[in-house]
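Structure tokens please, single chain.
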Amino acid sequence: MQSGFAKDGRSFAWLIHPIDIETFFRDYFEQKPLHVTGRSLDYYAEIFRPEDMEDILWRNVHSPSIAVASKMSRAISAPISYVGTSEPWWPGEMYKDRHALIINGIQKHIAGAGRFLRGIEKFFKTSGHLNLYANPANCQGFPPHFDSHDTLILHIEGIKRWMFYGQHATNPVHTQLDSKLVPPSGDPEMELELAPGDFLYIPRGHVHAASTSDSPSKHLTLGLFPSSWRDLMDMALATSAEYLDDSLRASIPLDASRETIATTLKEHFLALAQRCNDDVFVEQARTRLLLNTIDQMQALPDHHLERFDDAGTLNEDSIIRKRDSTLCAAFMHQGEAFIRFPTFTATAMVKGPAFIFDTLKFVEETEDPFRISEMAGSMNSRSKLILARRLMTEGLLALPR
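Here you go.
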């Protein structure tokens, strides 16, 4: 199956192939682990190759993104020097002592990994992180534990054995429990081995551990943080408090009785439930959730320096595109239209009068290149050209390459 990498990164459909997306969500997502095997050894070559690791270590030996995993603790650490040895290259010394090395944020080191991660983030409309784990032979990284995020494993090199001890918590959040270390009470409920090209999905809350035997291994771990109903309720409550109900911003009386607190809470929840009948309110809450995700992202490499020159060459017949794997959001706020998107260093936002909203929404929803004069909305061709130049200068749009 082709990855579609050149267009929009490694799609989720490619990642779980030959399992189809409908089957994944019906039978596995937030329910039980999924192991996909039998694929080519170099299935992930455009994302990461084993030889990439040493190059990253060479360039980032003192970076806090490099850490170690201990089989005795869930914690990780990244020492600048290794006490008790003359070895100046501490990752090598730690690896020699049977500690797993971790390089956090592989997407910041390899452009292909960045495009892959962004494709997954766009599919789930949430943020994620992509880390490399390199285990020496006869090594266990972390002890049995569960995570508060969904885990996607892309196995790169060697063989690694995974043990599963059942579901400890249902879709836990990171603030829910004091400890995610779970000493196993018996034998694993399931064991499997991952080989190069394999994929493994582990739902959050499922206790697991992994180890190598007589050969080293490397794999990528994608931590995914899907938006929950609790997250959406938080956004709905924040929208109510900021724009619709100033009583939510009032201080709780110091002498409020339990009965008063309970009654007031019920009133506020009933009012919130009533507002959910308003489509505009629901869309505002959903958009806030998406904006939170966008604010955690960074633009990918994609001819960014050229945008300042390219914008001046545009005309109404120019064909332009949204930058590779860019997640953006168009929305209305207090009578004005906005579109927000990530850049290299921060989140950018372009705003204008309400009548440009349909055009901004077209930009958000369109994935293929388009002609400026054919952008949706009531704006005339000249106004569309002005907007396109602005969006290109700010970093959202680009010329086809």
